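Changelog-adjacent note: as of this version, every example in the card shows the full chain rather than a window. The one below runs 37 residues end to end.
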Amino acid sequence: MFSPFLYSFHFFVFSDILYQFRDMIGLIVFISGKMIK
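Full-length structure tokens:
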């Protein structure tokens, strides 16, 4: 049983996780850059 609503919901949750992951990586890179300097 395929539901477009369910699909879009999973997609939004997945993209939200990706955004949080990207922010976390950016934060780690930022902190690492400060430590190197």
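Structural remarks: DSSP finds one helix and no strands in the chain.
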